[in-house]
Design a protein that fits this description.
The complex is a heterodimer of chains A (331) and B (256). With 331 residues, chain A is of the alpha/beta class. Helix content of chain A is 31%, strand content 27%. In chain B, 75% of the residues lie in helices and 2% in strands. The chains are: A alpha/beta (331), B mainly alpha (256). At the A-B interface, helix 2 and helix 3 of A face helix 1 and helix 4 of B. Bound molecules: adenosine-5'-triphosphate and magnesium ion (MG). Chain B: GO terms for molecular function: ABC-type transporter activity.
Amino acid sequence: MRAMPGPITPGPSEKDDTMTAIIRIENLSKQYGSGTKALSGVSLDIHEGEIIALLGPNGAGKTTLISIICGLVVPTGGTVRVGGHDIATQWRAARKLIGLVPQEIALEPFETVINAVRFTRGLYGEGPDDAYIERVLRSLALWDKRDAMTRELSGGMKRRVLIAKALSHRPKVLFLDEPTAGVDVALRREMWEVVDQLRRDGVTIILTTHYLEEAEEMADRIGVINHGELLLVRPTADLMGEFGKKTLTIELMEPLAAIPDALSDRALRLSDDGRSLAYEYDTRADRTGIAHLLGDLARKGIMVRDVSTRQSSLEEVFMTLVAEPRQEVTA
Amino acid sequence: MSGVNWPGVGAIFQHEMSRFFRTVMQSLLSPVLSTVLYFVVFGAAIGGRIQSVEGVEYGAFIVPGLMMLTILQQSVSNASFGIYFPKFSGTIYEYLVSPVGWIEVTLGFVGAAATKAVLIALVILLTSFFFVGVHILHPVWMLAFLVLTATGFSLLGFIIGLWAKSFEQLQIVPMMVITPLVFLGGAFYSADMLPPFWEGVAKLNPVLYLVSGFRWAFFGIADVPVGVSLVAVGLMIAACCLAIRWIFATGWRLRE
Ligand SMILES: Nc1ncnc2c1ncn2[C@@H]1O[C@H](COP(=O)(O)OP(=O)(O)OP(=O)(O)O)[C@@H](O)[C@H]1O
Ligand SMILES: [Mg+2]
């Protein structure tokens, strides 16, 4: 059941004509052997060079979607093309273009960092290139650890080793399944910078995350998945504009003891010190009610010193989108 | 074979061999030690009573059997563990997302497992020189049987590793199936020494054909014709390859 308002459907945006789709997902479905329907009818074009974030609660189907594209899971329906190559019939060509950083950390414990990266490069059929591997390890702050066994590394370092491995063959598309899970704030910043550098190198990035600020910070577009359905895909800014609630903060000349009765039917909140009023409004509504509010304030003789607006975080946007319909909760 | 990702094969092979060389002492020490024990027990104790089998000194007669026993055990355990370990640790994902198919994965893993097994078998042969005088009649055929057998049983071990869902399953097949087959396959005696009924039963055992062919390469005597031995090991290799190709094509126990 969809929580989405009617007119918003997933689909290509108007920019599609001018951009090339490096990944074309058509009508993809997956039902696991256990009977779980993890994906139903997902279609999506991913453009070359963009960063797209997939958002969704636990069990939404994000990892399943990534796993199918990368070749870990066989779909029950639909097709995927990567760089024009069908992942089922032209899998060698398709997989050469892809790097995957899985959600779960999995590393050979008794292998050194640099050998782990060299090994992956070999698997992709590439000859040795230690100069490039050095660059990758340096950019991930792993060069000093190159001769350490992977089991001696911290969780955040291990995740960066996985990224280094995924980059070892210069993929055009990089999948990051929850890249900052279990990574501290400073490291998370560092990770964002790494992603930013990759974007400048022209790598297409598909990431999943539970940190909504991360999607907002990094992604050009955001796709929202729930119950195996792609609810929508929108440029990050559009999504914010379309769904974002804004808060108007009105600073007052004179503090108020309480909200005047005449204004009590409006959704106003008075700050503790009585010096400002907060008014939340929906940018999508025909009338925001701001003009009326300001008019009413003037008529009441309440003097306004300053006004400012703040956009609500993506987290709030997200909660609005995936909120279950009431009846399902009570049923 | 032009489409084969050879650097990929090389990467897997090297990766698997490096595990062997990391623990080269353990890898070699225990087979050598058990060989010495076999010589002491079978060669000295039993050999004291059985002077010779078909004209060959008993101590020398058991050398091919010992090498076969080792090569079967080592092939199966190396190959099954080699592929089970990444399944267990989760690193199997790398093989599934990279441009390597069943040919590359099989060549890499099975090639490494068979190489290790052959190396260990040769070390055992060297060890046996300290105990008995062994003259090898057809050294090239001896090596050929060694390599073919190692390949066949590494393929079998590879399938066991793909199939296994736990360490118990991984160990039970070698213990319950391989070791009995070797002991009943004429490693330490000639099938002629059995009563007629049991000789018939023994001929159903595929290992008998390998041991027999291998012993022929040493001494020129065989329980079954050499050609039959070659066909037997060839059939085994072909059947295992088909099974592995099927596993990778369907994703059985590999891909959801
Ligand atoms: N191997 C599997 N076998 C059976 N069901 C599975 C398997 N993997 C995932 N599922 C089910 O498929 C659904 C989607 O799971 P998936 O891992 O794709 O979600 P996700 O969006 O990545 O979640 P999370 O944010 O927790 O990582 C879930 O209901 C899950 O239980
Ligand atoms: Mg997931």
